[in-house]
């Protein structure tokens, strides 16, 4: 059985969890085993149904006072216990911060290998192609382990419901957890932005060094506002202090996957590209027709973003 | 307080990363080297914390003899001690790296006293295994949370903030503790002239640590297929705006 760890946060399942189920469905088929899902710290029927909709035939739920909110150590301990108790053939999670963190926690506890951000897995001999350098380089590895622990690269597959959804059986997994594991459980939350976020926005308007200053991001904000999107930026911009780091798209920032990424004044260095390459479409606005991002874009406008972006905003307003 | 910050020496890539002909390593013929970005911020954070609360920063790295350069750079921005766990330069898998670092930290703690805080980068820029810091912390019995973009010390408590889609999660751990930090936690300073002198004076301690290979073996590095797009030029300057809005309308995002 392939066990997929379902990431969830207060009743909601992020895209990374649906991607893991989609990736897991193919992997389980290749392994010739059923796909089960683990729901840690929840028995939410809607999440169970979503797992079934994505092809899980059985869901193992775990409820415990230590699991009332997310805690990497407690989750790692539960996954380690499941490896022993459920005897899966392999364990998979999404390649999000949490997915990678909890499998690393489990692997550390069991002292077994963990292969992060896999793109292609051959279960016959566990030869795996995985992401290095955020995706600008690939690494073929083999893993020697009784139970391989794996995550799939973020946005490596598009989440897709199963053609034949199931109503999964629900099993309660009993586990004895040390109350001391609560030492790394979330204590508090600070909500900065409700609604659309950079990683879920359907449109991202990105600005790079070419924007020139913090103030010059105002037209980008306006355009993003008109399109119900968010503003992103390159590493050069956050290093200059023009935008907060939370707005950075890139290997050391956010991986975006919008319907369209409007990249303006951005050259498209590797560091930025690996954060943007999950975009379904890219429109580049750049003075330099030879810029990397222009070469990789679906559409480009050659020109000064300070003129082009306000003109696009004006055109949108005139059509409404 | 005593802080140990682990860093990794990585190539500083330009527009593309090439692989050697045998597919066993990144071709570094035309590349410089740097400290992996999350870890550069880790060093800065450690230095800021000791500036505020007193204490000393030890920077620890596992790598070839040349990785001493990254320790010297850390000294130039305020780290007090540099320790190298030498390798022959071949990449070590995550389990092996973690075992060696754990043993090095144990040695340093036996001789100089326990560290209050271990700081790791959330993941290295190159191999990106997302696990070495966690393995070390678990082996040492310390609590660890990753993805940290803010640290406050209050007595013996570390308050750590982790960025999420919508804002921050807050964690509280009693020291000794460990964190995996991310770029954005601070803006690293540049070395001063005084810092450069300190880096020259730094005595890099070598602390050999043996560790058996783990279960993940690298076979081959290769580049993903180049993304080549038939880029449609919609026009030049502001005059291209109507064509852009047509595209947006076709995609249904207007």
Report on the architecture of this protein.
The complex is a heterodimer of chains A (320) and B (254). By secondary structure, chain A is α/β, with parallel strands linked by helices. Chain A folds into two domains: 2-184, Rossmann fold, CATH 3.40.50.620; 203-318, Rossmann fold (3-Layer(aba) Sandwich), CATH 3.40.50.1220. Chain A has nine helices and 15 strands. Chain A has helices spanning 15-31, 45-53, 72-85, 97-110, 218-226, 235-239, 270-276, 292-296, 305-318; strands at 2-5, 35-40, 58-62, 90-94, 114-122, 127-132, 137-143, 149-152, 169-172, 188-191, 203-207, 230-233, 260-264, 281-286, 299-302. Chain A is elongated. Chain B has 254 residues and is α/β, with parallel strands linked by helices. Chain B has one domain: 3-Layer(aba) Sandwich (Rossmann fold), CATH 3.40.50. The longest helix of chain B has 19 residues, at 94-112. Chain B starts with a strand and ends with a helix. The chains are: A alpha/beta (320), B alpha/beta (254). The interface between A and B is large, with 101 and 87 residues. β10 of chain A pairs antiparallel with β9 of chain B, so a sheet runs across the interface.
